[in-house]
Amino acid sequence: MSAATPTDTIMASTKEEPTPSPLPIRSEPISKPAAPRPHPEPGYPTCKLRVECHDLAHRGAQIFFDNINVSHDLAAAVSAVLETLYKPSPSNSHIPPVRSVTFILHDMEGLAYTRGTELDNDHKEIHMNLDYITKIPSKPSSLRRHELQGVMTHEMVHCWQWNGKGSAPGGFIEGIADFVRLRAGLAPPHWKRQRVGRWDAGYQNTGYFLDWIENMYGEDSVKRMNEALMNKRYDETTFWMNLFGKNVQELWDEYCKTLPDEVKGPEAKKSQGGNEATAEHQGSEVKDRLEKIME
């Protein structure tokens, strides 16, 4: 092997090294302002729902659970009440702070009633008579479920409505409950609009009157009535005038003019008296029931 010559050594030392590729120039990304996130629509409050049955072997209990999906139908009653009486807001401070509703089935007098619990008034109880349930006709087949849903919805109103710090007429309070029942499509088949009697006779008599006001003076009229009962005592002189520019008797007379005369001639006066007696009896029932509803 021959020794390397000086020329070979010079060539080896002067051989070019590979040129590295240039690093890419990194440009700073242009920052864009974050798109605003849409605020969620306000929703209605929720509460815990419970059911108690004091006698599962009772025929009324069997009928109830055969016709009612408890978790679904109680929640549906709450939704019907809140959607009819309120518009949601971010705080919902205008809605009563109900924390729980317990639906209790047992033997008792009457049909149903609602009250606050011994713990506090934010926890409500709805009591329903098992014997009453057995008296609901079984035909048509849908009647039992329809009636039970209607009673549940009516009583649920009493859990969530305002009452003018306990000063509103009992018939007005019951009429709002039946207005909600009517708007939920749960009016029983025997209900009818009546021309005679007082506006605050209660139940469907007042419920249909409030429904007429809702149609004539604008949607949300009953919402406005309910919210007007939130922080102030009821004063019949100013309550209706502030809301509708008329007193309640004027509104009632307007409503009655839209209804046909059911009885004419000599029997009309007799019928009028009979209905006033019925209204007075209903008013007594209202008072008895409202004594069981705590402020």
Question: What distinguishing features does this structure have?
Answer:
46% helix; 11 helices; 295 residues; 4-stranded mixed beta sheet; disordered C terminus; alpha/beta
Can you walk me through this structure?
It is a single chain. α5 (143-160) crosses α6 and α6 packs across α7. Mean pLDDT is 84; it is low at 9-13 and 263-295. The chain has eleven helices and four strands; from the N terminus they run αβααβββαααααααα. It has helices spanning 6-13, 59-67, 70-85, 130-134, 143-160, 170-183, 203-217, 221-228, 236-244, 248-257, 267-290, and strands at residues 48-53, 100-106, 112-116, 123-129.
Number of DSSP-assigned strands: 4
Strand content: 5-15%
Q: Strand-and-helix sequence, N→C?
A: HEHHEEEHHHHHHHH
Strand line-up of the largest beta sheet: 1-2-4-3
Low-confidence stretches: 9-13, 263-295
For the termini, the CA-CA separation is 117 Å
Largest beta-sheet characterization: 4 strands, mixed
Output the radius of gyration: 35 Å
**Subunit arrangement of the protein:** single chain
Shape descriptor: extended
Helix vs. strand class:
alpha/beta
What is the helix content? 40-55%
Nearest-integer average pLDDT: 84
